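**User:** Everyone, produce a chain:

**Assistant:**
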Amino acid sequence: MGTSDRLLVYIAFCCSLTLVQTATVSASTIASTQVTSSTNQSTATSQVSNSTVAPSTTPAPASTPSTTTITTTTAAAATATTAGSTSAQTTQQAANSTSSSTTKSTPKSPNSSTSLASSTISTTAIPTTAASLTTSVTETTTTTETPSLGGNCTGKPTDCSNNNINGAAVCLNGTCQCQAGHFQSDQSTCIQESSLDPVSIVISNIKSTSLQVSWTHDVSVKNLTLEYNVTASITDANANPFHVNCQQQVDRNYLCSQLTPGYMYEVEITVTFNDTHSRTGSKNESLYPSKPGQLNKAASNLTYTDVTLIWDRSEGRVDYYYVQVFKNESGKSVFNDTSTDTTVHVPALPPITDYYITIIANSYGKPSGIRTDTFSTLYSAPDPVTNVTVMVLNETAVNVSWIVSKENPPTSLYEVTTNNLVDSTASSQSCLVEGINITYCIVTGLEEYWRYSFNVLVSALNTTSSQTESDNITTLEAEPGRITNARFELFNSPSDCDARKVKVIWVEPALYDRNSKIVKYSFDITTMNLQSTEFTVPDPDPYSTDNRKFEKEITELKSESTYNTTIYAISSNDHLGQQYTLIIRTDVCAPPDWSDSDLDAVMMQSSSTSSVTIQLPNAFFSKTEQGRLQEIGFIVLPRESKYFDGFPPINLENINDWHNSKNNEFTKEFRVEVTTGDIKDGMFKIGSEDCTSNYCNGPLPEQFSFKVAAYACTRKNFV
């Protein structure tokens, strides 16, 4: 801190009512002055700083007004002396070569509570080439300062009400401030806060979803920089809260949009100055309701005796709708009324007449745009028929009759439709007649032996009665359709082989092909003589959707034979169905086992050292019911054979020939093939050949004991 700074601090400490002012003069001459005023309460100091020499000052005691003379030279240092209340001289280093005389008023400090001081400075010009410069200054100080806003008013609060402060100011806590309810707009002005209120609020350009708002201000705030926030809010407590921020168009003119039609809105304007002072003004205004929706003809009742008109409601709020009905032809109004909902009842309009309707929504006394629509009245729905009866004519046609109400118009149409009661498939069969004197119609193209019911509907002038349904009926039986998927199976398993029978398998006719109640199936088998057999259907069901499968055994056939078999269904009324031809081919099975009597009848007639003759029963090797014998023969079983005692059963494939047995010294069984020509009068000699082929009948060894088994084959390949 410099010397001058320390002096100022000292003065502020010693004098409680001291105004310290510092004035800087910009000139080519640098000077320092100190002025002591005439009052004992304040001291004014004017100081001009020198860039080279710090001034030296001596404070004077408080006394009467004084005059100070300042002499300035170009010396390296200057000294100012003030004595009593008379004068002071100051010598100071000068930086320029000119002098001037100036009279000025000391500026007012924002915190000053003293008077202003004035100074008179006389300056004498000297040549720039002179060695020194002398300036004589005479300054006179007068106490005229008054407090300003923010200034110190301690001890004299009434000074806050002065000509330097515009508006209502008050001394509060030692500082001049604006009174309550006022705000400071600049350093010397207090304005009532109510002056911020928006006035002359005007709401204009009102539509169904928007409006504009404008306003003015008191003249005292028109030139201030103000901030605005404008909102629009629904006032109806029962409506959903809806708040919109409005957008500025020009100064103090805002647009509020995206509003809900028909509602009352409070438009609120908030004015803010300097972020701390705010005032709010508002005005209520209602919007126009939106135009009503279209006439809902599908929901309306346009019957001439009882017309009820229904339309789609307006968007937003509506107090009521005003409805007028006009004749299209004349334009004459035939009805008008108001409705608080979207329905109006119009009594006794003539039928088959064209009209137009106008609908206007109203909300808070404001009307919407006009909705215009047209409609035509209709006759009332005709009465339904009664006593519907059905007479079955044949397999595919019925006659449906009814009784007509006398109240129906003479141009009524009567339509008969069909209900399929068997499955969910829709029936398209129907008939249509017109006129009050016609009370029946014939429905054709129906399914044979099918369950139906029938509906009768009456139509007149674009209206339709309720339907009347008949009792259920069934059409007559017809020829059944053809069976499907027919085939046969042989009984040729090793455990159950029989070439004289087959199993026939088939599927009943499809649902829509049965045409009747099928109770049995017939099989006509063509041989040299016609053979027929039947199959009875268990639990006949003409409406089964499963297409049931059946099977039947056909017996008493011949092996290795072909049969043309005709299969057809037979209905409960003996209708013969369409034929299906199945070709059956029988096969062969092993010949039947020898019976005990056959085996016991085989006897030995004679023997030699190398052969044995046996006697066979009549018709031996003649059992051909399972197929023609392709091979016959005998098996010789020595005592050493495992088959000698009859167990296990003989497997023909495992039996060797005579050569193999001989090589084993006839301890092994062997097979002898023969033909029926080898058997003479029922006699056959075992061991009678010179054995050169397989399974030959070679000679037997001497003293050879054995058993004989006979075999027969219907097929030479053994499986």
Residues 157-193 form one domain. The two ends are 137 Å apart (CA to CA). The mean pLDDT is 78.
